[in-house]
Amino acid sequence: MVEKMQFYPLDINYKIIEGKPVIFLFGKTIDKKQVCVVDESFRPYFIVIPKIDITELAEKIRKISLEEEKETINVLDIEKAKMKKFGKEAEILKVYTQLPSHIPKIKDIIKEWNIIEGVYEYDILFTRRYLIDKGIIPMTLTEAEGEFANYRLRVPSFRAESIKSVSDEALDSPKVLAIDIETYNPPDNIIDSKQNPIIMLAMYGKRFSKVITWKAIEGGDLPIEHVNSEAELIEKFKEHIEAYSPDIITGYFSDGFDLPYIKDRAHKYKIKLDIGLDYSEISVDKKGESAAEIAGIVHIDLLKFIRKIMARGINFENYKLNTVAAQLIGEKKDQVEIEDLHIAWDTNDKKKLAEFCKYNLQDAALCYKLFDKAYPQLIEMIKIVGQAPFSLSRMSFSQLVEWYLLRQAHLHNEIAPNKPSHFDLQKRHSQSYTGAFVFQPKPGLYKNVVIFDFRSLYPSIISSHNIDIGTLNAEEHRENNPNTITLEDTGETFWFSTKKKGFLSSLIEEIITRRSRVKEMMKKDKDNPLLDARQNSLKLLANSFYGYLGFSMARWYSIECAKAVTAFGRFHIKKVIHEAKEKGFNVLYSDTDSVFLELGDKKKKDSIDFMDEINSKLPGIMELEYEGFYPSAIFVSAKAEGTGGAKKRYAIISEDGKIKIKGFETVRRNFSKIGKQVQMKVLEIILKENDKEKALKYVKEKIKQLRDHEIPVDKLIISTQLTKDVGGYGNVGPHVSVAQKMIQKGINVSAGSTIRYVIAKGPGLIRDKAKLPNEITQDEYDAEYYLNHQIIPAVEKLFEVLGYKKEDLVAEHDQRDLKSFFG
DNA sequence: TCCATCCGGGG
DNA sequence: GTGTACGGATGGA
After folding, report:
1. Among A311, A654, A741, A774, which lies 20 to 30 A Cα-Cα from A562?
2. pLDDT digits (tens, 9 = 90+) for A807-816
3. What is the pLDDT of residues A339-355, one digit of tens each?
4. A671 in helix, strand or coil?
5. Is A180 near strand B, with its CB below 7 A from some atom of it?
6. Chain B bases closer than 7 angstroms to a protein Cβ
7. Does strand C come within 7 Å of the CB of A723?
């Protein structure tokens, strides 16, 4: 009996059954039951554009027959159709084959014929093709028509005769299970699943938490489950997965660690990790960055998703779980000496082991919460791009753009361009072009500064100047065309149609408009995480278009378009600079899309009027925005003498006293606290109080304190990361020398460790004077070293702007020292 | 300064 | 599997 069933598709794969490819779409029904929708009717195809008569070509293709060892490969069917290639109508043939794997074989034959213009869309994965062609958006409400069937699966199956998207309503609380393992790992042993067992495995879900371990550990009220061996631990893990039946399994670096590790250990005991909903085993794809896949259960590696998709805008120091969790959900892990786990395990240290169990569970719980935080972003990206969570969560931005475009191309009946050949790639790699314009500032301290910037400069250029491969150098005349641009350096000229809308440019316009609508909705519905994730996804996608155009692997690659985008960018920002000067503003600085104007005797209102005037003449959706008013700003000179002002290095203060710093040491790690503190304080005095005497007095006072040994040692600590193991260094810098000492003392130090040291006074090389912080007292530090290597470099450029020389900073009797330092 | 390689995360 | 990888830091030539 034919019936309708609504569900949310979560995962997709296909299998060949009786010589036909069959799609399996795993999902959740509206009443939260697991289900698998099976579609036997979809066939693989690719596209051919003929050069000769289309019927004649079709006949030739139909006759193709390939004898292989086990099978004969034939063309299953051919359809004529009309599509567009870069906006131009084209008659095409859709060539169908029996199996997806036949596509490249048939394609390779036809590709060589000179009676065709080209072959296209021959490398779009079968399952992804299915989602696109059927208009299905994973995770959103979908309806299948058909009947329940009996495929051998862990969940009920439903054979679909037809399938369609119902709405963009997304599955709102999937059943998530976070996992984390701890392994036995003796010191200096690289983590190795061949040698070392899993000793704990934690799972955390909704109203479910468990730590499985194979030693009797007294965990108090921890949900510890004891088993007798590692093999039993793995069996128990399987049982729990089956009983809990999660929609989603998540972990942190679980693609590269937890799941491959479990799989390796299971293999050792000949245990089948067949937790897939089709009874298949976890598959670990080891190509490059590995990925662990479970059929029907979505495995999300949070590290990958966060690093690739959620991370921009947020500046993570690193991507350790602790760092990321602290930043995204404000939670930290308990401090545990994980290197000592093997000792506790060997010595049966019950108390320590209980702590490790707690730690293990906490990691899983952290993952669970991180997933919760990431879910809106994942959902919204899926809704836009339209690929399944497993693959989408591992995509780079260029891939997100590409799959978005592939879906849109299908919707617009556009033929997708091919990926570059090896030859194309070489050519693309050899090409480079000019980027953004940066205005060189004049060093100085300025008052009353207004900053304007172009809102989404590159996306708005692509939209407003109609930038697209199909509109590039269109037949209409290039003169008097507002979309014509000539490159300043090479003289190349590009122009874009004013009549016909381009594929890329209209898509980006749609993305931008959609985002404004979402932002509008957010005004009434503040703090809605879904809306925020949606506008963010749209913004990220729009911002990636330009990079995608110039990305060598892109299908819609066009260096001409990429060149035109930056050239229009330079054109518009330079025009603003020019007109601002004409209006009598002093232009202080400009970088890519922003411009800094000194008001002088003008009012804020005058600058707004200026902005409005600019905006009245800008094309399309381009817009110059008022970024803010800053009472004070400082620009310094570049390091090299006589090269003028430094680009990308300045500090400004807003009316509410907040200082924004770009490029100064204050934001860098490899600098002592005293250096940072003095720099920050001087900036503050200059920008807030505009009192150069006071700044000078402050620095002099600090220098005196430094020389009188009044600065505590912890403010003098310099931190440097060891980039390789100590033995690997040719030049022994101070941090390496200290690391050597640490090793002698039995402190475990290796590549990646951060070495903290202080420079002590005395004769000899700096590296011999570098001490561990606890080896030195306050009167032993080398004041002159800190003066010359930390304090002076931190502030000399600032004082230069104020009209002081370096010598003014230190007392008279020290000038000899300084001269020798400054040469 | 440019090119090649290594590493990230995990215990 | 109708496929293929990234990107930044670092160190050596």
Report:
1. A311
2. 887 754 444 3
3. 889 999 999 999 999 99
4. coil
5. yes
6. 7-11
7. yes
